[in-house]
Amino acid sequence: MKLHTATENKDIKLRQLHKECHSPINYQKTCPVCEKEVQNEEIVKAYEYTKNKFVVLDEEDLEKLKKENEDKSVEIIDFVKLEEIDPIYFERSYFMAPDSGGGKAYTLLRKALEDSGKIGVAKIIIRSKEQLAVIRVYQDTLLMETIHFPDEVRLVKDVPNIPSNEKVVKKELDTALMLIDQLTTAFDPEKYKDDYRTALMELIEEKKSENATVIANDKQAPAPANVMDLMTALQASLDKTTPKKTTKKKPATRKRTTKKHA
């Protein structure tokens, strides 16, 4: 079974530039104690079980867990009614498409869910993470929606500043109910638009038409004095390999010298 993301994040991402030369700002991984940039191979993963105390996890152990999870397939464990699940649990939607030769099974599951009025509760592995999900019919497809595990949903009692059952004035309640009644309509998703995103894109297009644009300075920044530059790194790499080549030549040289003396 193949998954295809059914929703898309339309947020407009803005880059940060250096105001003086319009170069994109880089984000580097640095160690605040060593005061230097840290390479990926120098980084280990760890779990902070209490403040400033960590359990370091070996990459081999993580890879083993990852492999074990990847070997698992989609497993439907229950069938329930959709209305029994509060929307707070829903996370992300995926269209489901059958693999080659899986059309019959796909059609059978779709028809069974449709006729029963139920949805399937399943477990699935996505990017090495076990996810709880529901599978339901959406128009002519199967739709899988990942949902949060119960312990991922915060308890209502932990929400601060929730007012107690204060007395509500009947006149105010009647006004509120009247407003709800006036605005009640059938749900039509097409009528709702992201006004801010639309206005922001209009502003961007307006700036482009006025040629209010800049060209990023792609000049490479000089390496800090305490960071090895490219030539130094290259020379270090050559130094590591040069002794090996020299060692191979030395035995032959000594043999030739011995023969001459003989």
From TrEMBL:
The keyword Nucleus does not apply. CDD domains: KU_like. InterPro entries: DNA_bd_Ku70/Ku80, Prok_Ku, SPOC-like_C_dom_sf. SUPFAM superfamilies: SPOC domain-like (SSF100939). Transmembrane segments: none annotated. NCBIfam families: Ku_bact (TIGR02772). Belongs to the prokaryotic Ku family. GO terms for molecular function: double-stranded DNA binding. Keywords: DNA damage, DNA recombination, DNA repair, DNA-binding. Residues 243-262 have a biased composition (Basic residues). Residues 35-164 form the Ku domain. It comes from the Bacteria. GO terms for biological process: DNA recombination; double-strand break repair via nonhomologous end joining. This is Non-homologous end joining protein Ku. Homodimer. Interacts with LigD. Residues 236-262 are annotated as: Disordered. With LigD forms a non-homologous end joining (NHEJ) DNA repair enzyme, which repairs dsDNA breaks with reduced fidelity. Binds linear dsDNA with 5'- and 3'- overhangs but not closed circular dsDNA nor ssDNA. Recruits and stimulates the ligase activity of LigD.
